[in-house]
Write a structure and sequence with these properties.
By secondary structure, the protein is an alpha/beta fold. The protein folds into two domains: 134 residues, Orthogonal Bundle (Arc Repressor Mutant, subunit A); 303 residues, pyruvate-formate lyase- activating enzyme (Alpha-Beta Horseshoe). Strands 3, 6, 7, 8, 9, 10, 11, 12, 13 and 16 form a ten-stranded mixed beta sheet that branches. The protein has a three-stranded antiparallel beta sheet with strand order 17-18-19. The chain has a three-stranded antiparallel beta sheet with strand order 20-22-21. Strand 17 and strand 18 form a beta hairpin. The protein is globular and about 60 Å long.
């Protein structure tokens, strides 16, 4: 769809807002770069009422359902089945690099905090050996069309280590060329030097994602992430000069000392920078699960009303600037592949979030990494010593996993359609799985009637459509179809809002 541009978008939003009083808690938010159906309605009362903890659905079933009975033999069978035949899918590779020089107090990732960079050497040896072991699981060559390095801090590695790791990957897997492959890396601007971005582009990366979280110095001090705006801008300039095709910026709302006024400044500066994608994550304060979060003064966290106000303000800012709302916490420019895929109904969701490569099998490499091959999920050992010992013994470090049932596959499809496209076509479910969706999900549809009464969904004989009022609550809607959720501890998940 044609992008009408920020100026037109702003004028339309202004016109719409005039229909509402300034203190109204129900407010339509319109982005004219998207279809008319993509209008968002911010209903603060409903958001408060439905604000509960729940999965983010980077997979269904979620990782909580993985079990240790899933064996190496199960994985090898899944890998063999998925790679057989002429219609075998491309591969996506995820490499987990867990090292960080300093700790960010909000972080819930699997990480190793050390300034002793020599600690990365034996881990990289194990990781390169795991690449060899994984490649041997596939009897026929399969093209890699997507690769991602995450962490931790991948730029913790020095240039020689990064070159070696990429060379090993290329030696054992068939990576697509630069024009057709999507090769991304998460970077910490504080861990870059004058030539870092040029080196990353040289070894094959064409996309970059970086954390900013908040430019406010008081917030940065409270979460132990001091990162100047000048430092961030310098890295972005270097990425653009080096020819990176896409830049993503991560922000977090709900951090200590944040206010609407302070976070507005950060978002304004990010919009001025103009990254291709922006993610705005809700900080989940779970100190009982993540010890490092105990360093955060809970008394300094914004209260629920302030968090909700920050979310509303940020959403308005990004849509006013012409960004498309992809879903949950993701925004993208109209010409970005995510926005295009959503318009063409090709968007998917996997362990890396929203993706344009959902047709790929995902190989997770490194400690705690998760993969999805065929109808199986697996996770590597979550302890680095256990991980390294498995590699030293010449075996894959898979610790647990899951083979999906037919019911799992059906529900995965339903949740994916809703979370990616805000609609479900009953006839498409029938064609794919040979079932009558209205009968199969009679209980779930009945449960959704209260959502319909609240104006969050529209249910018809042909399908389910998520309304503009319901889009910010898409996780709640998807939870209705999750048959495992009743037995899952709510403390394992973040709040929806």
């Amino acid at each position: 769809m044609r992008n009408t541009g920020p100026a037109t978008t702003t004028s339309i939003v202004t016109q719409v807002r005039r229909q509402w009083s300034n203190d109204s808690e129900t407010r339509p938010i319109r982005n004219t770069a998207m279809t008319p159906q993509a209008t968002l309605v911010f209903d603060a009362d409903l958001l408060r009422r439905y604000d509960r903890a729940g999965p983010r659905y980077t997979s269904y079933p979620t990782a909580l359902e993985f079990h240790p009975d899933f064996s190496l033999a199960d994985y090898r069978r899944c890998a063999s089945d998925a790679g057989s035949g002429a219609d075998s899918r491309d591969l996506s590779l995820y490499l987990h690099l867990p090292f960080c020089a300093t700790v960010c107090y909000y972080c819930a990732c699997n990480k190793i905090i050390t300034k002793n960079r020599a600690r990365a050497i034996p881990y990289l040896d194990s990781l390169q050996r795991e690449i060899e072991l994984q490649a041997a699981c596939f009897t026929a060559p399969r093209r890699v069309s997507q690769l991602h390095w995450g962490g931790g801090t991948p730029t913790y590695l020095n240039p020689e280590q990064m070159r070696s790791l990429m060379a090993t990957t290329r030696a054992h897997f068939d990576l697509a060329d630069d024009a057709s492959g999507e090769y991304s890396i998460e970077i910490d601007p504080r861990e870059t030097h004058d030539d870092t971005m040029a080196i990353l582009r040289e070894i094959g990366f064409n996309r970059v994602s970086m954390g900013v979280q908040d430019f406010d110095p008081q917030v940065q001090l409270a979460v132990n992430r001091i990162q100047s705006e000048a430092c961030t801008l310098a890295v972005i300039d270097a990425a653009r000069a080096s020819g990176f095709r896409s830049i993503n910026i991560d922000l977090i709302y709900g951090l200590p000392h944040q206010t609407c006024r302070s976070f507005r400044h950060t978002v304004d500066r990010i919009v001025a920078i103009g990254p291709d994608r922006i993610s705005v994550f809700n900080y989940a304060h779970l100190p009982a699960r993540f010890k490092v979060q105990r360093q955060i003064d809970a008394r300094a966290l914004p209260d629920a009303a302030e968090k909700l106000a920050i979310l509303r303000q940020t959403t308005e800012q990004l849509l006013d600037a012409g960004y498309c709302y992809i879903g949950m916490d993701h925004f993208a420019k109209p010409e970005d592949e995510l926005a295009i895929a959503q318009r063409e109904r090709k968007l998917t969701r996997n362990f890396q979030g929203y993706s344009t490569h959902g047709d790929c099998d995902l190989i997770g490499l490194g400690v705690t990494a998760i993969g999805a091959i065929g109808n199986c999920y697996y996770q590597n050992a979550r302890d680095i010593d256990t991980y390294s010992a498995a590699i030293a013994a010449g075996r894959l470090p898979i610790e647990r996993g899951l083979e999906l049932s037919e019911d799992d596959r059906i529900r995965r499809h339903v949740i994916s359609e809703l979370i990616c496209h805000f609609s479900l076509d009953f006839d498409a479910v029938r064609r794919l799985f040979g079932i009558d969706a209205r009968r199969y999900f009679a209980r779930e549809i009945a449960a959704l009637m209260s959502f319909q009464d609240d104006g969050l969904v529209s249910i018809s004989d042909t399908g389910i459509d998520v309304t503009p009022r319901g889009r910010l609550l898409i996780r709640n809607i998807c939870m209705t179809f999750d048959r495992y959720l009743a037995s899952a501890p709510e403390t394992k998940f973040s709040k929806v809002i």
